[in-house]
Model the fold of this input.
Amino acid sequence: METKTILVVEDEASIAEVVSLYLKRAGYNVQIASDGRKAMNIFERQSPDFVILDLMLPEVDGLALTRWLRDRSDVPIIMLTARREEIDRISGLELGADDYVVKPFSPPELVSRVRAVMRRLGREQGEAESERSLSFDGLNIDPLSRVVTVKDSSVDLTAKEFDMLYLLARHPKQVFTREQLLDRIWGGAAYIDPGTVTVHVRRLREKIEEDPSKPMRLLTVWGVGYKFEP
Done:
């Protein structure tokens, strides 16, 4: 099996060194960037398989770097954040980050989170490769290209938005609770605010519904959760 390369973007050298040490012990190759601009250069040259980034970075901050990465790739991203940065954590998840770890953190826990994200994304990729495109009246969802079209026009979705839409559309009329969606899309991340699901549903409606205030596809089942109407 090919060794995965992880890019660690952290301006505190002591933290970067410890994280690198534990990742190397776990069998990964590691690249380190001390600021967002250097991370961009490394990513364009070497295309790492995974990115761990601090939100508070010089040159280009973590949120801007996450947005930049998502414009170019579906590379898995784990954010390192301080406890006071809850709003930024939510923003990072909405931009497409896969997970976050709050400082101060345990390096072995971070390695476990990396492995968990890789396992989950590997399962999703396997499921997508075994699935066919889904087509509804004016809405098409292709799991291989991860392209969604509404009335023949493609719409830009984040990784999590696509995963949520595809999950709901694969099970039309089935009601999913917010907890079930957190488990299926975020891997059972109890540390993520369930309100994140509500935010993702709202943004999906803005992108695929003709009138987001009166949705016809992504419906709320009050007191329970959400379902997809085919």
Observations:
- Residues 34 and 219 are 44 Å apart (CA to CA).
- The first helix runs from residue 13 to 25.
